Amino acid sequence: MIKFVLMVNRQGQTRLSRYYESVELNRRAALEADVVRCCLSRKKDQCSFVEYKDFRLVYRQYAALYIVVGVTDSENELSIYELVHNFVEVLDKYFSRVVSSGAIMFNLDRVHVILDEMIQNGHIVETNKSRILAPLTAIDKMADG
Amino acid sequence: MPAVSKGDGMRGLAVFISDIRNCKSKEAEIKRINKELANIRSKFKGDKALDGYSKKKYVCKLLFIFLLGHDIDFGHMEAVNLLSSNKYTEKQIGYLFISVLVNSNSELIRLINNAIKNDLSSRNPTFMCLALHCIANVGSREMAEAFASEIPRILVAGDTMDSVKQSAALCLLRLYKTSPDLVLMGEWTSRVVHLLNDQHMGVVTAAISLITCLSQKNPDEFKTCVSLAVSRLSRIVSSASTDLQDYTYYFVPAPWLSCKLLRLLQCYPPPEDGAVKGRLVECLETILNKAQEPPKSKKVQHSNAKNAILFEAISLIIHYDSEPNLLVRACNQLGQFLQHRETNLRYLALESMCTLASSEFSHEAVKTHIETVINALKTERDVSVRQRAADLLYAMCDRSNAKQIVAEMLSYLETADYSIREEMVLKVAILAEKYAVDYSWYVDTILNLIRIAGDYVSEEVWYRVIQIVINRDDVQGYAAKTVFEALQAPACHENMVKVGGYILGEFGNLIAGDPRSSPLVQFNLLHSKFHLCSVPTRALLLSAYIKFINLFPETKATIQEVLRCDSQIRNSDVELQQRAVEYLKLSSIASTDVLATVLEEMPPFPERESSILAKLKKKKGPGAVSVTELEDNKREGGELNGGADRGPDTAAMAASNASTPSPSADLLGIRSSAPVGAAPTSAGNLLVDVFSEAGPAAPSAAVNDDGFLRDLEQPTETSDSLLVEGSGDSDSAPPSEDPAPPLSEADELLNKFVCKNNGVLFENQLLQIGIKSEYRQNLGRMYLFYGNKTSVQFASFTTTVSCPGELQSQLNVQTKPVEPLVEGGAQIQQVLNIECLTDFSDAPLLNIKFRYGGALQNLTLKLPVTINKFFQPTEMASNDFFQRWKQLSQPQQEAQKIFKANHSMDTEVLKAKLLGLGTALLDNVDPNPENYVCAGVIQTKGQQVGCLLRLEPNAQAQMYRLTLRCSKDSVSRRLCELLAEQF
């Protein structure tokens, strides 16, 4: 099961966080700081899976943006690693440009919609790009029309 | 900064976000946020009704602020209002807010439920999805009660849109996890399983998560999913890369779905139906074959997706563990990955191979990769990959390759990362013992370990080598020779000195024939290390010296001289001083015969599980150790620290059995008192000797009895303070099999029992737990009474007492399991036997689990076993008291706290509490009659700790000053902490 998805910039600031297990607010900040420190300090040639407490982190870097996913051992690491990439490709497709942490901040609600279409309750629910974007495309049509 | 907002961008929001991004400091950011919060608050409170757009904008701002890590305590009502909007974006922000800022405020939940109900019946698929999503995210009991019966219907209805089915599947999964009693699958089971056949891949992806979870809980009911999953998998695997259109990812058809199907199959044993099994084996072979085909794309995404499926298939093959052909192919495939340029693949391959090594079919195949794995251990640049390589070497080790693997691990240790050294040391020690053919190799290995990584060699490791040497006479001469040689090194680790001292003390005679290691040479070698060592090691060496006097009478004069010198006989450490005095006396008055009996060679240790293995398990968790080893461990039960508690055992035995008293029996139990023939057996440290005149057991029992009476009269304050901890739990967190963390008020409950032994420990609407306890010397008995306050039976009632962390070696708590059923209104009793081994600070944990009307209740309390329970009161006169007070003048022996009174400062109340503490309350001692002074001795198995206490109340300021002086500093600190909460 997926425990959380974090999007973090190179300064370690959280740009998006989505938890699929209830974590108290005051523990989130500490967890995020620790998780981010853990991933940001790793070099390019180190492996993308990190043992962390009783679960694992799968992370992927896109320029200045890091995406970190916390998973239990019932998940397949490589498939989560590619899920992250699929997510980024969906964002690229929707925003028609390379995703930056700025774009995420200005469109937080939409990024959440996209993420929610892909992962629900910590489980992968949809991987087809056009279906993931279907609700947003519908809204945008309504707004334009 | 251009705002890249799409759709109906909210300008105010964009400006706010820009402001935040431009903030130069954290302070500036907080200032800007507070300004915005005040603005939103005033807008929400204002007289003017806000339109939907403004509400959405402000709620969105609140969400953003929440994301930056600030708590949001308002806006919930506005968010709920947005739910009833007809505009998708407004509704969506409302739901997002509710989902992210879960709030179990029942008033709101009712409103939210209403909105959800409307959306579910709206027939608008996007609205239905939002509503289902919200239920799944909040997942509270109230929501489950309202919608649990509705959702399966939506899930399987023929006219439900695909996207709604997906959300419904995940929603049902959440409700099943949080309130399994409300989700009744019975009539839906077959139709849910058939979702695996749904023509829409997204629906299948979502449904598998639900089916996997349901199968784990009710494997028999969902058995039919196996054949459906196999045929679905087979269709995907055999499809061309273009067949599945949008579900194909970089030329790999439906990789995520394939992984999930393979994972679902791992919930079941291999299919019994021959045709199904044949089809599955074909699938697995195809997946293995595809790994050998040339890639359809150079992109890393292509190979990652392909390999994700491959690793999952290999997991399934390992799970079945019945197809030798597939197992060997899997092993060969992983072998290729071991040399792949992608670090991720090497990491996963090492990990996967570790499980493959434990299968009898593939163990040999795994072994063929030994050189590659050793190379990985030496050359990998990522420590986590090296760690996996070390794990794999450990897993593939058997008698045939043990020497090679141990040698490689030893040489790696010299440069290994600090973070994994201790674990490596334990692994080497275990392998060396497990696969030792000749014990001289074992001794060499352990001594090498100490030489290379002495700091990481725990007590268990060197205890173990001594146990083995003592038990096997064929290796004793070799061990003596080897330690003698190892000690020649100018700088050797203290652990080496310990092993050397012990072994030469026992078996030095076996090498004394060689003039190069004559008795005097041996003694001088040991003594040359003496002054550089810590107190415990020096104590051990002193015992080795007295053994030398017995083994080699010619060393007697030299050793007596050493014992006699001031640095020994007047040593400031009482233990060393006492040993020096007693050994000196023993050597001068005892006849040769007596000496030979007293200092006889150690008897063999009883065979028991290696304490090292237990330590590794504790360190790594079950994953690192094979199942059989774990089973062994369970049988051994409480003896986890076999090696460690061996010392005091023999010490006790030697003391009680006058015919074979052996002073060196305590070589392993240095912290216990030294039982030497003539000396009184209880001789602890000096302070205790002085105290012991006060007479031990009888008066203490009397005090305790008083305590019982008084405590029974005290009303319990706990009754109302904690309402339904248990049933509230199930809302916020899914019921788990793991013990819950201790209640937040566990410490407070514990504090109520520091000065009393009986009363109600805990009470909520369901359960009451009462306690009665009595203590004598270092032993205690506690009666726990569990009362069922409801009229309904508690099922699967289990209680577990655990000693977390180091407490395990400090306190021994034993009990029998209780009856699993507690009838309504009934009370059951449990008896705990408690033994205090050494002083301690933490409290043992009591975990209680039971089912009440289907919901799992899980709560953890701290048992009120505190160090002061083992007090024996000591009466003494004023000048005695202050003389001892001065003796305990080292700064760390004193702990002091000045604090405000929390309770009544009434004299009688204070006196009652101080007596309840277990000490003697001394009259006419302190010149100031307002002050209270107490004295007592804490009895532990290994040691007695004298304690003096002074409490100075200041009635005017409503303050106290509390001072404690104890012969052990950790005790002073702990008592001070405990008592500061009492007054």
TrEMBL record, chain A:
<dbReference type="InterPro" id="IPR016635">
    <property type="entry name" value="AP_complex_ssu"/>
</dbReference>
<dbReference type="GO" id="GO:0012505">
    <property type="term" value="C:endomembrane system"/>
</dbReference>
<keyword id="KW-0472">Membrane</keyword>
<dbReference type="InterPro" id="IPR011012">
    <property type="entry name" value="Longin-like_dom_sf"/>
</dbReference>
<dbReference type="InterPro" id="IPR022775">
    <property type="entry name" value="AP_mu_sigma_su"/>
</dbReference>
<keyword id="KW-0813">Transport</keyword>
<comment type="function">
    <text>Component of the adaptor protein complex 4 (AP-4). Adaptor protein complexes are vesicle coat components involved both in vesicle formation and cargo selection. They control the vesicular transport of proteins in different trafficking pathways. AP-4 forms a non clathrin-associated coat on vesicles departing the trans-Golgi network (TGN) and may be involved in the targeting of proteins from the trans-Golgi network (TGN) to the endosomal-lysosomal system.</text>
</comment>
<dbReference type="Pfam" id="PF01217">
    <property type="entry name" value="Clat_adaptor_s"/>
</dbReference>
<protein>
    <recommendedName>
        <fullName>AP complex subunit sigma</fullName>
    </recommendedName>
</protein>
<keyword id="KW-0653">Protein transport</keyword>
<comment type="similarity">
    <text>Belongs to the adaptor complexes small subunit family.</text>
</comment>
<dbReference type="GO" id="GO:0006886">
    <property type="term" value="P:intracellular protein transport"/>
</dbReference>
<feature type="domain" description="AP complex mu/sigma subunit">
    <location>
        <begin position="1"/>
        <end position="142"/>
    </location>
</feature>
<comment type="subunit">
    <text>Adaptor protein complex 4 (AP-4) is a heterotetramer composed of two large adaptins (epsilon-type subunit AP4E1 and beta-type subunit AP4B1), a medium adaptin (mu-type subunit AP4M1) and a small adaptin (sigma-type AP4S1).</text>
</comment>
<dbReference type="GO" id="GO:0005737">
    <property type="term" value="C:cytoplasm"/>
</dbReference>
UniProtKB/TrEMBL annotation, chain B:
<protein>
    <recommendedName>
        <fullName>AP-2 complex subunit alpha</fullName>
    </recommendedName>
</protein>
<comment type="similarity">
    <text>Belongs to the adaptor complexes large subunit family.</text>
</comment>
<feature type="compositionally biased region" description="Low complexity">
    <location>
        <begin position="725"/>
        <end position="735"/>
    </location>
</feature>
<dbReference type="InterPro" id="IPR013041">
    <property type="entry name" value="Clathrin_app_Ig-like_sf"/>
</dbReference>
<keyword id="KW-0653">Protein transport</keyword>
<comment type="subunit">
    <text>Adaptor protein complex 2 (AP-2) is a heterotetramer composed of two large adaptins (alpha-type subunit AP2A1 or AP2A2 and beta-type subunit AP2B1), a medium adaptin (mu-type subunit AP2M1) and a small adaptin (sigma-type subunit AP2S1).</text>
</comment>
<keyword id="KW-0472">Membrane</keyword>
<keyword id="KW-0168">Coated pit</keyword>
<dbReference type="InterPro" id="IPR011989">
    <property type="entry name" value="ARM-like"/>
</dbReference>
<dbReference type="Pfam" id="PF02296">
    <property type="entry name" value="Alpha_adaptin_C"/>
</dbReference>
<dbReference type="InterPro" id="IPR012295">
    <property type="entry name" value="TBP_dom_sf"/>
</dbReference>
<dbReference type="InterPro" id="IPR009028">
    <property type="entry name" value="Coatomer/calthrin_app_sub_C"/>
</dbReference>
<feature type="binding site">
    <location>
        <position position="43"/>
    </location>
    <ligand>
        <name>a 1,2-diacyl-sn-glycero-3-phospho-(1D-myo-inositol-3,4,5-trisphosphate)</name>
    </ligand>
</feature>
<dbReference type="InterPro" id="IPR008152">
    <property type="entry name" value="Clathrin_a/b/g-adaptin_app_Ig"/>
</dbReference>
<comment type="function">
    <text>Component of the adaptor protein complex 2 (AP-2). Adaptor protein complexes function in protein transport via transport vesicles in different membrane traffic pathways. Adaptor protein complexes are vesicle coat components and appear to be involved in cargo selection and vesicle formation. AP-2 is involved in clathrin-dependent endocytosis in which cargo proteins are incorporated into vesicles surrounded by clathrin (clathrin-coated vesicles, CCVs) which are destined for fusion with the early endosome.</text>
</comment>
<feature type="region of interest" description="Disordered">
    <location>
        <begin position="624"/>
        <end position="666"/>
    </location>
</feature>
<dbReference type="InterPro" id="IPR016024">
    <property type="entry name" value="ARM-type_fold"/>
</dbReference>
<dbReference type="GO" id="GO:0035615">
    <property type="term" value="F:clathrin adaptor activity"/>
</dbReference>
<dbReference type="Pfam" id="PF02883">
    <property type="entry name" value="Alpha_adaptinC2"/>
</dbReference>
<feature type="binding site">
    <location>
        <begin position="11"/>
        <end position="12"/>
    </location>
    <ligand>
        <name>a 1,2-diacyl-sn-glycero-3-phospho-(1D-myo-inositol-3,4,5-trisphosphate)</name>
    </ligand>
</feature>
<dbReference type="GO" id="GO:0072583">
    <property type="term" value="P:clathrin-dependent endocytosis"/>
</dbReference>
<dbReference type="InterPro" id="IPR002553">
    <property type="entry name" value="Clathrin/coatomer_adapt-like_N"/>
</dbReference>
